[in-house]
Amino acid sequence: MAVSSLAITTPIRNLGLYVLLLVKAFGSLGEFSLYRKNLFTQMVRTGIDSIPIVALAAGFSGAVTTVQTAYQLVTPFIPKSIIGSIVAPSLILELGAVVTGFILAGRVGARIAAELGTMRVTEQIDALEAMGLNSVGYLIVPRVLAGVIMFPILYVFACFVGIGGGILVAQIGGYLSIGEFVKGAREFFQPFDPIFGIIKSVVFGFAITTISCYKGYFTGGGAEGVGKATTEAAVMSCVYILLADLLLAVLLL
Amino acid sequence: MKYGNELKVGTAVILSLIILFFGIRYFQDVPLFSGSYELHTAFSNADGLVNGNPVRINGVPVGSVDRVRLNTEQQRVDVYFHVENGLRIPEGSTTKLAGLAAFGTVMLDITLGPPGNPPLEAGGFLSSSSSDALGDIMSQAPQLVGRVDTLLTGATSTLGEVEGLLANPQSDLRQMLVAIEASAASLDRLLRMEQRRIASTLESVDTLASSLSSFTQNNQDSLSLVVQNLNSTLTQLNTNLATLESTTANLDVLLTKINQGQGTLGLLVNDPGLYHRLDSTAATLNGLLLDIQRDPKRYLKDLKLVDVF
User: Fold this and answer.
1) Does A190 contact B5 at a Cβ distance shorter than 8 Å?
2) Do A216 and A233 form a contact (C-beta atoms < 8 A)?
3) Strand, coil or helix: what is B28?
4) Mutation site, B6, B11, B16, B82, interface A, largest A CB count within 10 A
């Protein structure tokens, strides 16, 4: 198959293929009726169904960050409220988006790549094309849009639960009171921080879904190929999340 | 459920927007439901003030700093901050920076102006009062250290000079010390020589004191009697003095009356009529006596003085 032979050529050709797929997807954005039903299904699968695991991860991240910061701050000259000043911005700037990103790379990226890969190897995509349907518009656009829209929402929940977990552990564990935590968090709070986090989460959502769609859409080689595509989708998503994270921090902070 | 998925997604979107909005407001220290209004102040030095730092009135947090902008034209730092709605900040209030960036937080303290003044409108300007006691101390510390240094240098040189003076056998100080030493030795010798006399003098003083003590003890009764008598005498004197005082007061009243011409005595003293009459009577009597001398028969005729003699 021409497509599968292309998938193992040079990284530059891969990049070109990826960009062309994106162009085609953006070109299909106008055909809303084509993917409207699919979009909401994908939003629920990507976003709503991910809320419990994201909240769990973020809550534990906040709690662990609080405990470890308290453990490291042993100097009596530093007020305890500094723990709040460290934990809240850490979650808002970095952990909220990145932890969510990693979880979604595993949960959503792998699912997308597996779905599309299976559709590719079972020639369902070819069947859609044969029926005259725009397969990119029908399969990829709703998945990418769902990721871009739902990821910031998950990020907000993650920050909420994460800071809540941090405050809860600080209070219950006796590290510092809620008031001290909030005071510290307020002292160094910048309104741009959550905006930056939302920008990050949009970029991460876009990266995860497009990479996974690309990997799945251009799968070849039967069941083994699907497994390979799934693994690559999850790993590449994580790698590009980290790259994008650094790039955004350098560019915007 | 035809719209099941749409409903779930919509709910999640609305919920996250609410969390985002109130979360940002909460961490910005903006009151969640009541609004806030912005005010503006300026400092010559922001001292590490950044947005998000608390704004306080009398130590109570009422808002937070929004923006800190360097104004190079006027060479100052413009600080914009917001405080809770309904908080009345009168005109004439001032701002100052509190806290140290090195120790954690810098805060913007508002010192309220006279309560009678009209409240500031949103966007109003508050002048800043330079405070920063610690900063002043820090800025003055080098001068202080310099002065202490000078002082210590002076003290060291003085001590050195004193040491030199002490070491030099020709110096006044050394000679004075030698003289004092000699005086002390003389005094010591004198004391030793006169030890017996001093002892006897002290003994006599002691005897005198003991005799006085025994005398006082022996004559305790008579002494007490004397004291009692003296006491009663003094009491008597006191009474006499009181009487004298009342007498004087009475006399004073009397004299006042006389002076004012009241009563016989007063009239006598003050009214010159009696004197005039007495004078004219004396003059008339004088005339009469002269007349009698000149021609006694004229008066004595009827009396028949001749018959009498």
Assistant:
1) no
2) yes
3) coil
4) B16
* Residue B84 and residue B57 in contact, taking contact as beta carbons nearer than 8 Å: no
Q: Which residue type does B196 have?
A: R
Structure tokens given for B232: 């009663």
- The Cα–Cα gap between B197 and B201 comes to 6
Q: Using 50, 70 and 90 to split pLDDT, how confident is the model at A235?
A: very high
Q: Mutate one of A45, A189, A198 to test the B interface: name it (highest B CB count within 10 A).
A: A189
User: Quick one: pLDDT at residue A191?
Assistant: 82
Nearest to A40 among B5, B15, B23 (CB): B5
Residue of A nearest to B55 (CA): A187
Burial of A215 (0-12, 13-18, 19+ CB in 10 A): buried
Angle of CA points B301, B305, B306, to nearest 5°:
95
- 3-class SS string, A162-226: HHHHHHHHHHHCCCCCHHHHHHHHHHCCCCHHHHHHHHHHHHHHHHHHHHHHHHHHCCCCHHHHH
The answer to whether the CB atoms of A186 and B12 lie below 8 A apart is: no
Q: How far apart are CA A214 and CA A211, in angstroms?
A: 5
Q: Which residue of A has its CA nearest to B13?
A: A153
**DSSP-assigned letters across all residues of A78-100:** S-THHHHHHHHHHIIIIIHHHHH
Angle A51-72/A96-104 helices, nearest 10 degrees? 140
Q: What angle do CA A239, A241, A243 make, to 5 degrees?
A: 70
**The domain containing residue A114 runs over which residues?**
2-252
Do the Cβ atoms of A40 and B9 come within 8 Å? Answer: yes
Q: What is the pLDDT of residues B252-283, one digit of tens each?
A: 988 888 888 787 877 877 778 888 888 999 99
Say yes or no: ipTM exceeds 0.95: no
pLDDT digits 0-9 by tens, A59-93: 999 999 999 998 888 777 778 888 888 899 999 99
Residue A166, token pair as written in the block: 């941090």
Q: Do A160 and B29 touch (CB under 8 A)?
A: no
> What b-and-e string marks burial along B64-90, b requiring 16 or more CB atoms within 10 Å of the CB?
bbbebeeeeeeebbbbebbbbeebebe
Domain count, chain A: 1
Minimal CA separation from B139 to chain A, in Å: 23
Q: Decide: A117 and A4 in contact? Cβ < 8 Å.
A: no
Q: What value does the mean pLDDT of chain B take?
A: 82
Which element (helix H / strand E) includes B25?
helix B4-27
Window A:32-91, CB contacts with B under 8 Å:
40-41, 43-44, 47-48, 51, 77-79, 81-82, 88
Which residues sit opposite B55 in a β-bridge?
B63, B108
Q: Tell me which chain B residue has its CA closest to the CA of residue A85.
A: B104
Q: Which residues contact A40 (CB under 8 A, 6 or more apart)?
A: B5, B6, B9
